[in-house]
Specification:
This protein has 41 residues and is mainly beta. The protein has one domain. It contains no helices and three strands. Strands 1-2-3 form a three-stranded antiparallel sheet, with no helix packed on it.
Length: 41
């Protein structure tokens, strides 16, 4: 099972986090990412 969420979203930058769990519900992996948001063209 994977769960993800946006921690903070500004006008130009977004911060997110994801967690991966096994069948027993134990945390297997965790990741975070930073995204640069570009204007629509």
């Amino acid at each position: 099972i994977a769960k993800g969420k946006v921690l903070r979203m500004g006008r130009s930058v977004a911060y997110s986090e994801a967690s991966l769990f096994d069948a027993d519900g134990a945390l297997v992996s965790k990741a975070s990412a930073t995204f640069k948001l570009l204007p629509k063209s």
